[in-house]
Amino acid sequence: MKSLLLFGATGDLARRMLLPSLFGLDGDGLLPDDLRIVGTARSDLGDDAFKALAAASLKDFIEPERLKPEAVAKFIARLRYVRLDVSAPDQFMALRDALGESPADGLRIFLSTAPSLFGPTIAGLASAGLTGDQTRLALEKPLGHDLASSRAINDAVATVFPESRTFRIDHYLGKETVQNLLALRFGNALFEPLWNAQGIDHVQITVSETVGLEGRMSFYDEAGALRDMVQNHMLQLLALTAMEPPARFDAASVRDEKVKVLRSLRPIDSLTAPTHSVIGQYGAGAVGGQPVKGYAEELGRASNTETFVALKAHVDNWRWRSVPFYLRTGKRLPTRSTEIFIQFRAVPHSIFSGPGAALQPNKLIIRLQPEETITLRVMLKEPGLDRAGVRLREAPLDISIPNAFADSRRRIAYERLLLDLLDGDPTLFVRRDEVEGQWTWIDAIRAGWAANGMTPKPYAAGTWGPSAAIGLTERDGVTWHD
Ligand code: BG6
Asked: From CA 330, how far away is CA 374, in angstroms rounded?
């Protein structure tokens, strides 16, 4: 019998994402028949209480039409619960016993606990003989708060799990549209000839959120937007946008190319932090017509943590010479939207003249959230007889992924990642050298802020961050795509 062991099984991630994802896979017949899902956490629950928690989470997060009673019953029957205090090594023996005969065979482990618990958990698993050659370990962020702490975690993991069996999660890589970036770039001949400094003027990557602290006060206040969103998700999006074509779509080839990009990022350091980065913190305001509190008020005290960051990055290699990559993310912004915006260069010479004939450069907009769309904005002629000169207008060539693929269900990113963990395919997981490349770049930015005494500038909730963020691009003649 195989087991999937979930550490942190009563937490938010498990309830919102992991259990609903596993249910989705089960419903499609994608889980091995004999897979048992064993949840562990510190809460004093029994199997029944955990099953009830799981049933409630399915109710909350799965569309009612997919909650067929037989499917729910089949899934719930897979669940077990073991109460575990990971700081008490002897309790791992009880866990081992609960896994039945040959407990380490085909064992898959998913850690979504505080990183301070990773070390003791791994040591406990090892002492109970649960880390054999067949065992795979998935780790959920945060994997440290800087390069040094991330290395310490990676070292602790590596004492027991080789890199080939370590699956670091960045849930953005499980998103369909993120994978579509690879299909779009490398499955079409159209884009590659222009996908470089000759064809592209600049790139913007925006992840804007309307939510505030969402009850994660102490975690978020210690992290801030740079570590919470840029270090991982946004740098992965940047790497996939900027990487060279991999030789194959496999784990080594894809990750080799991504890590080259991460290592080519020009440092934003104490010299350039003031001109290449802007940080902000939201004050009171209104989002979606509702008044909301400011960050400090939500937190209950003053803080210097940034809830918004905008950066001007460069990938220093031949392909991207002098092409800025503007990154922007924040909480309590006007809309929820994640997109990669690519602005191509203008045509070298316009054959059109007259007031209605101004040309806009082409833009490719890959939107991940809330809608999954890919839009190419092109210049077209307005219908008419052009007696007063030709009139040109920008118009979209639009693909809505859900409409184009209406026959397939939109999946939670974790469905893909959990399935790949079970199957042993690490392509969509983050390799150690990638994480360390990401932290190296992020640490330099933070050091640059400290060296320059930079603190977050205020912005009203429901606006696009501090006005300096607009200045960051306007100085280059570029406007953020809102
Ligand atoms: C998480 C961050 O990694 O990603 C959160 O910790 C953020 O602060 C979330 O809200 C955003 O994920 P998504 O999938 O909603 O864009």
From this structure: 23
Q: Which H or E run contains 448? A: helix 432-451
Report the C-alpha gap between 446 and 362 in whole angstroms.
Answer: 35
- pTM higher than 0.90: yes
Residue 161 identity: F
Flag whether pLDDT at 1 surpasses 80. Answer: no
List beta partners, residue 7.
Answer: 40, 111
Tokens coding 267: 């440092």
Euclidean distance between the first and the last CA atom of the chain, given in angstroms as a whole number: 51
Q: In whole angstroms, what is the distance from residue 374 CA to residue 402 CA?
A: 11
**Residue 314 φ/ψ, nearest 5 degrees:** -135, 140
Query: If you measure from the C-alpha of residue 225 to the centroid of ligand 1, how many angstroms do you get, rounded to a whole number?
Result: 10
209 Cβ below 6 A of ligand 1 = yes
Give the residue, out of 178, 205, 229, with the most ligand 1 atoms within 8 A of its beta carbon, to mutate for a pocket test: 229
Confidence of residue 89 (pLDDT cuts 50, 70, 90): confident
Please state, as a whole number, how many other Cβ atoms lie within 10 Å of the Cβ of residue 173: 24
* pLDDT for the residue numbered 167: 98
Q: For residues 311 and 191, is the Cβ–Cβ distance under 8 A?
A: no
Cβ proximity of 142 and 223 under 8 Å: yes
Domains of the chain (ranges; CATH) run 2-171 (3.40.50.720), 175-411+432-474 (3.30.360.10)
